[in-house]
Design brief:
The complex is a heterodimer. Chain A is α+β, with helices and mostly antiparallel strands. Chain A has helices at about 10-15, 25-45, 90-95, 115-125, 180-200, 240-250, 255-260, 265-275, 290-300, 320-330, 385-395, 435-485, 495-505, and strands at about 55-65, 70-80, 130-135, 140-150, 155-165, 170-180, 205, 215, 335-340, 345, 350-360, 370-375, 375-380, 410-415. Chain A starts with 10 loop residues before the first helix and ends with a helix. The model of chain A has no long low-confidence stretch (mean pLDDT about 90). Chain B is an alpha/beta fold. Helices cover about 45% and strands about 15% of the residues of chain B. Chain B contains 13 helices and 17 strands. Chain B has helices at about 1-25, 65-85, 90-100, 110-125, 170-175, 190-200, 205, 220-230, 245-255, 280-285, 295-305, 310-325, 340-350; strands at about 30-35, 40-45, 50, 55-60, 90, 130-135, 140, 145, 155-160, 165-170, 175-180, 185-190, 210-215, 235-240, 275, 290, 325. Chain B is globular, with a radius of gyration of 22 Å. Classes of the chains: A alpha+beta, B alpha/beta.
Chain lengths: ~500, ~350
């Protein structure tokens, strides 16, 4: 009789076997994903201290491994918060270890990306990773480590402690990986450019394997307020979350339980809700049966009187900063940004920011340039499947006197505690009705403002043309009529020209 | 003749003065003139030609769309004034090019022609009066002695039989005075070939006639010239054209003028007669024919409703054309021999339409 063996695999092992999920599909995607994950970690690390990020990325060529893939060494350095020495091995050598398990807006979600990059480097080159970090105190810690894939544990190969004379603060990650830089290059550069667009307070420096330097300089030191952590909103809970809360709660009656574990539930709301749900306020939440928990979850979703989630857990870029970012990277003639009021889908708060830029260095290519961002990271793949593409295509642009052959770029930023990605690959936003409506309303607003700009510009140029025509012909009429009438001196036309100017600029 | 020139000069100067004074008193200059839009063109049965109605348009330089044509109009007035006062002439083509020397470009010949028509409308006199002429192609032959008034030729005379190809009806001829003639009629002919045949066959002598070649649709100068022959010499005018709707209309424009020239007077000869080839001639003389095509038919239906074609004779001919659906050129008479048209047809028709 055949015996089925069950084995538990570690998280590291799981991702080793399923690296496609994290975007490390092939040498070209792999090198792009590694740069991207580390840059995003660095941005988060600096932003959590609210200091403008300074990020240095270097890719250098190390040698060939096969026909297509080459080995590169990647180094990413930041001025972020730094990692406390005792957490360094786990933070970089243990998958699913991290600080990103709370409910607030973040770039990454699972604290997975950076480690995946290191893991990818390790499995393609068998080289250890070098991590150097300091929190700005008196010491700098340098680790050389590997991930023990089967046990999901860091293996420390070497550890050094250095005196931090300069009081340096930040983290440096350096490791080797296989990649196809030639094919990844356009995506990496586009990624950096768009990152600079949506993080205008960051300095990004990139040195590529050919030694070419790409610099994206900040235009402002101003940064958006960092997001606050928040309790789950009743519309967004599921049975699993309820069960967990019931297990850990110190509260012994329903009003206290609701008030302390959920967002937007106070004394009054709790009372009203319990009446609506027909649950006795004195009920001990721990005594809820499984069926009652399921019913509670459904009733929470049905109750109409919860206020929508407060958006303090979100950190949108703000109209001023997004405008600065677009102006600096696209150099348009005109840009308008609109931030929608916070909204929710399925209990998750989100804010949409939409921008339209026109003219200047934006190329005419017969269709709009579309830039998509989610929690301040650019989305570069699957543009056609994204909900914003659907919205843009279904808009009646002619109403706004806008045609696809105009030099127009549209930027769309969604920030949320949970971005409604359609797939694990996190490349495009799903078509949620609430999200779609917000994007559509935002687009209409910026389109209206663009139309106003275009109309005004048309007026100004028409007035200027008008004045040109008058200044060209009035003197001639004056001269010809003087000759025809046999007069000596031309009549004075300045008064007439002045009255033409009155209509114009 | 000189009187008239002086009048023109004065009205050009007044136009300039009017504009000058408007600017000088701080107004955007403007000019009023009768509207030449089709809704404002009426047929006046009294004077038997098209005239403009009461509607007027204002060209105002306050309007950005008017200022360019207005400037062109003033320039054209100035240019005409120079021409007239220096007693020089110019062609339509000349005007188009001369403008460029004043940084006054016309988009094309059509635009400059339109402006000249505007000036005609403003002044109420035709361009020939202010010395702008179209390219000429029509001619005159016959016993008429003229006396030039153009500079350098003042007082000189010429008998219009002196050149067998005829004398071109140009600025010098149209401004000349008629000194003496023995002719007692004018015969206008549409085509050059027949004109030459008539000269060769001594039609001018045999019929005591002045022969005028219109070369297709008669130019305005030629129409004015025919009118002068009719009025000043007091002789009847007979018109011979091809036997088709187009030939019929060439005659009609000489008689009653065209809608395009509704703003002008003294271009028509209301008493002139269309003597042939009629549709009934085609039947009576059994002429070789071509079939009328669709465009010909359409034209006939238009003419049938045209107020200028009210007369019994013309309505009869139109009906006959529509019935026989055939047309014939003048040359068709050659089937009876080259001189048949002069020996037989011409005297018959002159008698018939007297």
């Amino acid at each position: 009789m055949a015996k089925t063996t069950f084995e538990e695999i570690s998280a590291a092992d799981f991702f080793y076997r399923n690296r496609d999920i994290a975007g490390f599909t092939n040498p070209s995607r792999g090198i792009f994903a590694a740069v991207r994950e580390l840059v995003e970690n660095s941005l988060d690390a600096a932003e959590s201290l609210k200091i403008p990020p300074d990020i240095y990325v270097r890719l250098s060529y190390e040698g060939e491994t096969g026909k297509e893939a080459k080995v590169y060494r990647l180094r990413v350095e930041d001025n972020g918060i730094g990692v406390p020495p005792r957490h360094i091995p786990s933070a970089f050598g243990q998958v699913l270890f991290g600080s990103k398990y709370k409910l607030k807006q973040q770039r990454g979600t699972f604290g997975l990306g950076g480690k995946m990059a290191i893991l990818y480097g390790q499995i393609t080159t068998h080289q250890p990773a070098h991590i150097t970090s300091s929190t700005g105190m008196s010491k700098i810690y340098a680790y050389k480590l590997r991930i023990d894939i089967q046990r999901n544990k860091p293996l420390i190969l070497d550890r050094k402690v250095l005196i931090n004379k300069e009081r340096w603060r930040g983290t440096t990650v350096e490791f080797s990986l296989e990649g196809d830089y030639i094919r990844a290059m356009p995506k990496i550069l586009e990624y950096l450019k768009q990152t600079a667009m949506v993080n205008p307070y960051a300095n990004l420096t990139f040195v590529d394997p050919k030694g070419r330097l790409y610099k994206f300089t900040r235009v402002t030191e101003e940064m958006p307020d960092p997001p606050k952590e928040t309790l789950p909103h009743p519309y967004g809970v599921d049975v699993e979350l309820l069960q967990r809360l019931i297990q850990v709660t110190p509260f012994r009656n329903m009003p206290e339980f609701l008030k302390n574990h959920f967002h937007r539930i106070g004394e009054k709301t709790a009372e009203k809700f319990l009446e609506f749900a027909n649950i006795s306020p004195s009920k001990n939440p721990r005594r809820l049966s499984h069926e009652e928990v399921v019913r509670l979850m459904r009733t929470l979703k049905r109750f109409r009187e919860f206020l929508p989630p407060n958006a303090s857990c979100l950190s949108p870029l703000g109209e001023k900063l997004l405008k600065a970012g677009i102006s600096k990277e696209l150099k348009p003639e005109f840009v308008v940004v609109h931030q929608r009021r916070p909204s929710t889908y399925a209990g998750h708060p989100f804010i949409i920011e939409v921008a339209i830029a026109y003219g200047g260095e934006i190329p005419r290519k017969g269709s709009f340039l579309v830039y998509r961002f989610a929690n301040r990271i650019p989305l570069l793949y699957d543009e056609a499947s994204d909900v914003s593409t659907t919205v843009i295509n279904s808009m009646n642009w002619r109403r706004y006197k806008v045609t696809p052959d105009m030099p127009i770029a549209i930027a769309m930023h969604i920030c949320s505690t949970k971005i409604p990605y359609k797939t694990v690959g996190k490349e495009f936003i799903a078509d949620r009705p609430e999200v779609r409506r917000e994007i559509a309303n935002g687009l209409r607003e910026v389109a209206r403002r663009l139309q106003r700009f275009l109309t005004r510009r048309e007026h100004v140029s028409r007035d200027r043309k008008r004045l040109d025509i008058f200044s060209k012909y009035l003197p001639k009429i004056a001269k010809f009529s003087t000759q025809l009438a046999g007069k000596e001196e031309d009549p004075d036309i300045t008064k007439l020209l002045r009255s033409v100017k009155r209509f114009g600029t | 003749m000189m009187e008239r020139k002086k009048e023109i000069l004065t009205s050009l100067e007044n136009l300039g003065l009017k504009i000058y004074e408007q600017i000088d008193t701080g107004y955007f200059p403007s000019i009023q003139m009768p509207s030449r839009s089709t809704e404002n063109i009426y047929y006046d049965p009294q004077i038997r030609q098209y005239i403009l109605g009461d509607r007027r348009v204002r060209r105002n330089t306050r309007n950005v769309r008017h200022i360019r044509p207005f400037t062109q109009l003033v320039w054209t007035a100035l240019f005409s004034h120079e021409l007239s006062s220096q007693r020089k002439t110019s062609t339509l083509r000349d005007v188009y090019y001369s403008a460029q020397a004043y940084e006054m470009t016309f988009k094309d010949q059509q635009e400059s022609n339109n402006i000249i028509t505007d000036l005609e409308t403003v002044l109420g006199s035709s361009r020939e009066d202010f010395n702008i002429f179209p390219e000429e192609r029509s001619a005159v032959f016959g016993d008429l002695t003229i006396e030039y008034t153009v500079p350098g030729y003042e007082g000189k005379t010429l008998n219009l039989t002196s050149h067998p190809d005829g004398v071109m009806i140009g600025p010098a001829l149209t401004s000349a005075e008629f000194a003496s003639t023995t002719a007692d009629k004018v015969i206008a002919i549409e085509k050059g070939g027949l004109f030459t045949r008539f000269v060769e066959e001594n039609v001018h002598k045999k019929f005591n006639a002045i022969l005028v070649l219109t070369a297709g649709q008669a130019p305005r100068a030629t129409r004015h010239f025919i009118r002068r022959l009719n009025r000043e010499l007091d002789v009847p005018v007979f018109i011979f054209t091809d036997g088709d709707p187009w030939g019929m209309h060439i005659a009609m424009v000489i008689i009653s003028g065209s809608a395009n020239a509704a703003h002008l007077r003294e271009l028509t000869t209301p008493d002139a007669r269309w003597s042939g080839v009629w549709a009934t001639d085609i039947v009576d003389y059994k002429l070789p024919t071509d079939p009328l095509d669709e465009i010909d038919m359409k034209r006939l239906y238009e003419l049938q409703r045209d107020p200028r074609y009210k007369s019994e004779l013309l309505q009869r001919e139109i009906k006959t054309f529509l019935k026989i659906r055939k047309k014939a050129e003048k040359e068709a008479f050659s089937r009876y021999g080259l001189t048949y048209i002069v020996d037989e047809y011409l005297p018959t028709k002159l008698e018939e339409t007297k």
